[in-house]
Amino acid sequence: MTSSPAHALPVPLRRRRDRWVWALVVLVAVLWSISRAGVSGVLNQRGFGQLSSFFRAAIQPELSGDLLRIALDESITTVSYALLGTVLSIGIGLVGGVFMAESIWSPITRRWSLSRRFGWRSTRALMAIPRSIHEVVWGLLLINVLGNDPWVAVIAIGIPFGSVTAKVFSEFLDEVHNDSYKALRIGGASRLQALLFGSMPEASGDLLSYGFYRLECAIRSAAVLGVIGAGGLGFQLQLSFTSLDYNEMWTFLYALIILSGLADWWSSSVRRRHASPNTQVAEGAGVARQPGRDRFLSWSAISAGLAVPLSWWWLDLSPSNLWSARTQRLFGDLVTDSFPPTITNGFGSLFTASVDTVAMAVLAIAVAFLPATGLAFVIARRSHDQSTDGSASLASEGARFVTRLFLLTLRAIPPPVWAFLTLFVLFPGIWPGAVALGIYNAGVMARLQAEVVENHDDSKGRALEAAGVPRVSRIAYATAPQLAGRFSAIGMYRWEVAIRETVVVGVVGAAGLGRVVDEQVVRFDYDGLTSTLIALMIVTIAADQISAGLRRSLR
Q1: Is a pLDDT exceeding 50 seen at residue 259?
Q2: How far apart are CA 476 and CA 489, in angstroms?
Q3: Phi and psi at residue 535, in whole multiples of 5°?
């Protein structure tokens, strides 16, 4: 009797085997990354004093009237960048999402032709390029063309965010009930007409919900762009840090934390009201359709719409600057200087930087994952988490509030600031960037994982609770095993993002392709920069494919 081939295994056994294989791959990747980064001679003992001084200054921020006015003005500027960048990204996402949707390429009754499939895949591949380049890189390039014009931050946010939004929106269009689409197609409508008038209305609510999530992310990106000179709170943080005025720096950090907290509350409220209990996470945001009209959602959309012209007025944007003779000349010079690509220091150097980038991203998620997972259960709100003991309930709410504030601080402070701080106590290399990105991603991942916990139907956990099993045991034996797959999927999603974010910490001295990008921009080595960006795109696309394979094995 011959043994069954591997593909003939029952589905549960095949999934279990695949998960063990991927678990081994992840473990080997983490151990390899630690070996790559090194474990000896990385601590700088003399920097702990500076780090202590920085955190002591948190209790005495500078509160002079002039500085508070600057903080308020720069806060409005940061929000304006984020809002207009988000609007631009939604516009790009609407157009790109339609042309990336499988529905617009696939015929209704016939099989896919080779040309249609090639067109669909080519469109998706083309739209993947903008999101593989971090907004900081877009900002560095645009500054050379537009100078210190506010358009730099708006466009630098809008282009990569628009590419991400197009990908997510195309999936919304493909996943909605397509009865209206089919009816219009059978009635003689073109694919584009059927998509616009059949599928688009059903998916518009999902896009609104996702747009508020992107606004929350855009505020953090606007702060990061400020660090490289685009203005806003990030720019003030950079100036304060350069002069080592920690008290002043904390004033701007608190302003950024407040902004992030308000955006977090608004975005979460919109998505909770729009999402169904069994929502899936798409690019970090749960979205699903819910019948009925919600007044809060309507007012949120109206408020955001009114804020757009106000932001335009505040930034004093001039569209003519985008196509002025000077802009066209500088753009032409940038394109001429960027092609053909050249590898400045040889292929070996570029390959080493790429490997360091991957190792840094792996370590960042390894640093973030376990703390984020544990804290996610602390901050998650569950409808059945009620205690008959009022003091216990009060203590639980207090712990939840403090933990939420702590995690908000982790993700509100831009990664370059965390990188500056880690460079006090860690010598330049892979570890400062990995730790900085790990701290930042712990705040982001814990929030995403908490949403998964809140939306999970924990019937097994409630059964154990009724039997008197302690909460920690319920989580360990009932809830956590059921959520492990989705938590791992979030971890892999953040790993993809961390690959791009290594550029952010690279500009302040961490290793990898980010440091190469910073050095090439400073030297105006744009043809070398093109090769580095191509390497970053290859690494990002490879990470996307690996992540997709792991997520498929977890379904």
Answers
A1: yes
A2: 19
A3: -60, -40
**Residues near 331 by Cβ (< 8 Å), separated by ≥ 6?**
145
pLDDT score for 331: 93
Spatial neighbors of 548 by CB under 8 A, at least 6 apart, are none
Separation between Cα atoms, residue 122 and residue 113, nearest integer Å: 14
| Residue closest to 294 by CA, chosen among 207, 216, 200, 205 | 205
In the prediction, which pLDDT does 4 show? 46
Other C-beta atoms lying within 10 Å of the C-beta of residue 308: 14
- Specify whether the CB–CB gap between 322 and 151 falls below 8 A: yes
CB 272 within 8 A of CB 211: no
Residue type present at position 28: V
Mean pLDDT of all residues belonging to the chain: 82
Residue 239 pLDDT greater than 80, yes or no: yes
Cis peptide before 130 (omega within 30 of 0): no
User: Which pLDDT does position 553 carry in this prediction?
Assistant: 65
Q: 280 phi and psi, to 5 degrees? A: -100, 155
Question: By three-state DSSP, how is residue 282 classified?
Answer: strand
The 10 Å Cβ neighbour count of residue 270 is 25
Token pair 């032709």 is found at: 113
Residue position matching structure tokens 């795109």: 537
**Nearest-angstrom CA–CA distance, 83 and 80:** 5
Predicted model pTM: 0.83
Contact 441, 365 (CB under 8 A): yes
92-110 tens-digit pLDDT: 988 888 888 877 776 655 5
Distance of alpha carbon 232 from alpha carbon 239, whole angstroms: 11
User: Over the stretch 476-510, which tens digit does the pLDDT of each residue have?
Assistant: 777 777 787 788 888 888 898 899 889 888 877 77
As a whole number of angstroms, the distance between CA 248 and CA 253 comes to 9
pLDDT digits 0-9 by tens, 147-187: 889 999 999 999 999 998 888 888 777 766 566 766 776 77
281 has which bridge partners?
286
CA geometry: angle 495, 448, 275, nearest 5 deg: 130
Going along the chain from its start, the domains and CATH numbers come out as: 12-38+346-554 (1.10.3720.10), 78-231+245-324 (1.10.3720.10)
pLDDT over 70 at 289, yes or no: no
Structure token pair of residue 294 = 């919600």
Rounded CA separation 257/254 (Å): 5
